[in-house]
Amino acid sequence: MNKKTVIANFKMNKTCRETVAYMTELLPLVEKYDAYIGICPPFTAIKSASRKAKGSNVIIGAQNLNENEKGTYTGEISTAMLIEAGAKFSLIGHSERRSLYNETNELINKKIKKALASGFTSVLCIGETALERTHKKTQDIINIQLSKALEGVYANELKYIFIAYEPLWAISKGTGSLPLPTKEEISGAVNYIRKVLENLYDKQTSQNTIVLYGGSVDDVNASSLSTIAGVDGALVGGASLNTVKFSKIVEGFSKK
Ligand code: PGA
Q1: What is the pTM of this model?
Q2: Nearest CA to 212 among 240, 231, 187, 189?
C-alpha cells in the first residue's frame, strides 16, 4: 500500500494563536504515523504554522490563491506571498469558493496554471451537487470540471496536482437530502476520475495521480474509507479542527 495523504481544511476557523496551539497539540500525536499530512489554516496563520511544522511530518498549505502575479486586486493573495509565508501547496476550486464566490472552471484553470508556474502544488477540488447527483449528472460534472480545470496542463505537470473528489451533498455531514456516499459510490466516482485522466492524458499519468476523497471524513469512518481502492487519502473539514479526531483520521489512513 502506498503512503496516503491526509489534508486538513480549517476553512474560516482558528486565529493564528489558535492554529499555533493546535499545531503544538497535533505534532506529537501524529509524529509516529506513516502518512503525508497537510494543514490548510487561514492565511494569517500560515507563517506561524509553517514555523511550528518545521522538521515535523506536517506541511502547511493555503485554502486559495489569486491567479495573477501581483497588482490591483484588493483583498487577494498571491502565490509568491503564500510561498514566502511557508505554504507548500494550495486548495483550488473548493466547492465553497465555487458556490459562494462564483469561481468558474475557467478561473480555476488560471489558478492551477499560476500555481504550476510558481512551482506550487495544487489540490484541485471537484464534485457534483445533490441536484446533479439526483439527475445522474455526476460523471458529466466530473468530466467538465476536470477537463476545463486541466486545459493546457501537461501530463508531466500532473504530479503537482492532486484531485480531491468532494461530492457537495456529502460535505459537513451531508445536506440531509441524500445519505452519505457508500464506499462503492466513492470508488465508482474515483474510477471515473481516473478514466477521464486517462482520456485526457494516458494510463500511467492517470494511475500516478493522487486522488483524495472529501466529505464528512471523521475519526470513525477514516479507517474504512482508507481501504477504498484508488483513494489515496482524504481532505477533511469539520473533523480536522479537533487535534484528537484529526490524529485518529491520520492513523486511519496510515500505512499499517
Ligand atoms: P467536511 O468538509 O469534512 O466538514 O465535510 C470537507 C471539505 O469541505 O473540504
Answers
A1: 0.96
A2: 231
